Amino acid sequence: MAMDKDVELTTRAGEVDEIAMQEAIEDERVKTHQPGGALERYINLVSAVNFSFILQCSWEAAAVTFQFSLSNGGPASIVYGSIFAGIGTTLVATSLAELASMDPTVGAQYRWSAMFAPKWNRFFGLMQGWITVFGWICSCTSNPALISNVVVGLAIFNNPNYVPERWHVTLIMWAITLFPFFANFWFRKLLNPLEAVGAICHVVFFIVSIVTLVTLAERSTVEYVFHTLTHDVSGWQNPAVAWGLGLLTVTYPLSGFDGVLHMSDEVKKCRIRVPRSMIASVVLNAVMQFAYMITVLFTIGDVDLVSGDPLPIIQVYYQATKSKPATNLFVVMLAIIIFVSFFNVFASVSRLLWAFSRDNGLPFSPFFARVHPTLKMPLNALILVGSCLAILALINIGSSTAFNAFISLPALALYMSYFFPIFFIFWRRMSRSHPTPVPWGPFHLGKAGPFVNIGAMCYIIYILIWMPFPGFLPVDGINMNYAGPIVGAIIIGAVVDWCISGRKRFQVPVARHRPDFG
């Protein structure tokens, strides 16, 4: 019966290329043999590129988080860090794009770790799955955290008598989360117009912001922009440490490029389109982030006034425009793009959680692995993600530094999730004793592969060193960076899960059938 369906699909796919034909056959196998159901492919090349392009929203995220670099590193961290982060993230994205071309799958990192680990494949696959899922849930939380920070900042700007309470931010985050949660029920119908509008706004707002600042604002000196290294504000006196801590502003916005990977089961010709969209989005966002931050530094105005504001970018625009309505408009522009990005992040993490459940990576996996027969989306996984976001938003009530955690947590966890698949494929490509060759896809780095992999791993290790550091000294319970301990707790929890039931429950994912690209 299955063979008859394969023949029928092959005949129907006669006018499309071999990749699309193979995908159609494989999707039919999944529908036939996968108890939870399968997703349908509807994302074309333009939508795939726009999905990644908008999901990162790098210059907007850098605009509302550059207060971290003002205290540590200053302009030197922002300027040279943007170049460093752009090159490093491109190496990471290129390494993962090669893996995506081999096996484009929703599970991505944990599937590749299970596939290429030299031994203990199931263990590394499960650990990787927990880290990746946790990293993406935290990344999903960062969007409402950024938007709520904008809302509170504008409220203070327009009403100086307003005193924000911590629970205000929690309520704002909950309200913001409701929109993408319900919108994902009809994400297929919303995707194309949403991505098109988001991409246009992402570029148009970028151009308008730069033109406005360059035209109206007073100029900073070249000495300030390119030769100022701040290391006497946060308590960290060592310039190298201050520069490293300041990298959070420029490295965090460029993470998350793997979001389109977790939509792979819904992308047509994903072996070609997913790698292209990943690399294109990183390069474009890195260039835009660098250009925008250079512009901000040259037009920053009174540095003390800017650094003293709860949301520094507000004072940058206000000093340039001398108008509160204009400042409100420009800052709201930032929030709009981050909000559109939130829809993509929400969809991506729900698919990832669904895939991990499909491979029995989570307790109660069969429940979360179901695909709603009418909506054609993982409804139960979506509800779990929304619940996790609602719980994580409560951190604001107990901690005044929760915003720092919402930013550093996803960056730390996601970069950890990038490291292991790259390390394992590097190990495999350098191995001379493995009985089978690496099943390369249409995007293959060839002889440059080992060098790209090494560069990517060195960049990740360097970034991971600084992510858990507290931003200020002396360290106390209020300004402590809890990102490291929380990630450590997740890893310990994953090990406990492995020992209790994970080693029996988790199934090593099997790579889908791959056409011969010769």
TrEMBL record:
- InterPro entries given in the database record: AA/rel_permease1 (IPR002293)
- What would be an example GO MF term here? transmembrane transporter activity
* Any single Gene Ontology cellular-component annotation: membrane
User: Is the keyword Transmembrane assigned to this protein?
Assistant: yes
Can you name this protein? Answer: Putative amino acid permease
Segments traversing the membrane: 78-102, 123-147, 167-187, 199-217, 240-261, 282-301, 329-356, 377-397, 403-427, 448-469, 481-500
PANTHER family referenced in this protein's UniProt entry, alphabetically: AMINO-ACID PERMEASE BAT1 (PTHR45649), GABA TRANSPORTER (EUROFUNG)-RELATED (PTHR45649:SF5)
Organism classification: Eukaryota, Fungi, Dikarya, Ascomycota, Pezizomycotina
Keywords associated with the record: Membrane, Transmembrane, Transmembrane helix, Transport
- Determine the domain of life of the protein's source: Eukaryota
Give compartment(s).
Membrane
Q: Does the keyword Transmembrane helix apply?
A: yes
Q: How does it sit in the membrane?
A: Multi-pass membrane protein
